[in-house]
Amino acid sequence: MKIALFGSVDATWGKMIHDEGHEVHSIWLQPMNHLTASIVSLAEKQGSAIQFQRINRQKMLDLEAQGVELLISIGYPFLIPTDTPLRGLNIHPSLLPDGRGPFPIPAILKEHRDAAGFTVHKLSARFDSGDIVYQEKFELGDHDTCDTLLIRMYMRSSDAMRTILKDLPNHWDNAKAQTAAPQWEARGLAPEFFRPELSLEENVSVWRIYGAGGTLIRIGDLTAPVTGLAGWKEAHTLEPGTVLSRDEYRIVIAVSDGFAVVMYKSL
């Protein structure tokens, strides 16, 4: 099947596409400074054009004319038109209708753990409101974070798509409408910052909930995503925020009740 991807995927998606013999015509992304290795590898292997632009109706008609049979969206922030003959599916990281809206995972980890999982649904004129093709619930463990839930979504959704794409007409025709109103909706969140005036555990909790994509460190001339956070409790007389060590990927910094080792990614 010839597919156009909207948003980023990981290596499990690349393997699924290769194993099942699908063709990726193009990959549509929001403007960004960095492409993941998985996207670069998929584009190179497939010969896919990478488009840093917002899709519109005319571009969708162009895709159809070029033989694209299906659009798949995963983490694409723009509303995709649905008034063309092209079919489209979206993968959303909650059990819809609960968690409808952008970036629901922090809210799931904080207070809506029963909505953990993902939904494959038809694209619709309103975000995350299309008929449900497939859902899978996740049981949360003590070590789950924003990043583990995203990775689990990629892994399990790529596996689910193997089955869905083998018999897409049947799955499409048997999709279930979202008739119930959501009990809660995601509203999108501004990035959270590492705050040395807080305790080590409070900072670790923020990172677990918001992940590498939603947690930043800002110290002096450094502003960067936090990719990992650990440390130890220890009484000290240093001012919180005092930097003890820093290299190109790690900074050791005093917090209110100890020391944090913050792994970061340079922008």
Order of strands in the sheet with the most strands? 3-2-1-4-5-6-7
Beta fraction of the residues?
Answer: 25-35%
Strand segment count:
13
Which structural category fits the helices and strands? alpha/beta
- Averaged pLDDT, please? 95
H and E order: EHEHEHEEHEEHHEHEEEEE
Number of helical segments?
A: 7
Poorly predicted regions are none
The best one-word shape is globular
Biggest sheet, in brief?
7 strands, mixed
Rounded to the nearest angstrom, the distance between the terminal CA atoms is: 36 Å
**Residues in helices, as a percent range:** 25-40%
Q: How big is the Rg?
A: 21 Å
Question: Could you please describe the fold and organization of this structure?
Answer:
This protein has 267 residues and is an alpha/beta fold. It contains seven helices and 13 strands. It has helices spanning 11-20, 37-46, 57-65, 105-111, 146-166, 168-173, 200-214, and strands spanning 2-7, 23-28, 49-51, 70-74, 87-92, 117-122, 132-137, 192-193, 215-219, 222-233, 243-246, 250-255, 258-264. The strands form two sheets. A seven-stranded mixed β-sheet has the order 3-2-1-4-5-6-7, covered by helices on one side. A six-stranded mixed β-sheet has the order 8-9-10-13-12-11. Strand 2 (23-28), helix 2 and strand 3 (49-51) form a beta-alpha-beta unit. Helix 1 runs parallel beside helix 5. The longest helix has 21 residues, at 146-166. It starts with a strand and ends with a strand. The model has no long low-confidence stretch (mean pLDDT 95).
